[in-house]
Amino acid sequence: MTITQSRTDLPALATQYAEQGFVLVKGLLSKEEAAAYRETSHALLARLNRDDDPTWQSAMGMSDAKTRLQHLHDAQFYDAAFSKLLVDPRFTDVAAAVMGVEDVQLHHTKLFVKPPENGSPFPLHQDYPFFPHKYHRVGAAIFHFDDAPEEKGCVRVIPGSHLAGPREHDPEGSFHLPDVPFEDAVPQPAEAGDVLFFTYLTVHGSGVNVSSEPRTTWLVQYRDPSDPPTVKTHDHSLGQGMILRGIDPTGRGSV
């Protein structure tokens, strides 16, 4: 099941998100914008000469061959193009609608490139154990800067999995759910410009990129500023607490 909607139908987006835990918004960015962001992303990684590999240890058994991954935290602190996208109403209005709130606060961002032929997968997991919050009004948006068919290791989700609440994860090699079959997750192929929104309780992962082209995405984790974290963790992200839409009614900022 792949659930897609126009970003202009916010009530429908909110309904599908509440029922299924995710929604794929088609064409939130134009093809031209996505292509420009793809070029910017690859140029940024090349300029910074990042050679660290964030592949999870728990992902190493998902492929017969050694896989690799490129990433960058806080791309908005290196290029203003990403800062503009963070406060673009096309994104923030959807984020607010699916959470059912008026205000949207940044948690963190990550730029990912899965290299061709052996781009690393991600085991099934919830984002919850990495940064738990009291009311679970925390979500993610994955911006696709190039096409992400199944052979590129597109995101997979388990529809409705958020309704069961937080799950017990195996923390070894990064939090993952070894008892949930990877085949249970439904592929969500996307085109350049599409954005996949999902809750931090939705079980998700992704496969290996076995294609001849890289897969380029930007992950934005956001929250309701009125939803406090229950533990102090993942506070190394430089932009955490930035208000992307509305206000912070608590005055708490990133604390």
Automatic annotation (TrEMBL):
Keyword tags: Dioxygenase, Oxidoreductase
GO molecular function terms attached to this record: dioxygenase activity
InterPro entries: Phytyl_CoA_dOase-like
Keyword Oxidoreductase: yes
Top-level taxon in the UniProt lineage: Bacteria
Keyword Oxidoreductase: yes
Name under which the protein is recorded: Phytanoyl-CoA dioxygenase family protein
Organism of this sequence: Kribbella ginsengisoli
Lineage of the species this protein comes from: Bacteria, Bacillati, Actinomycetota, Actinomycetes, Propionibacteriales
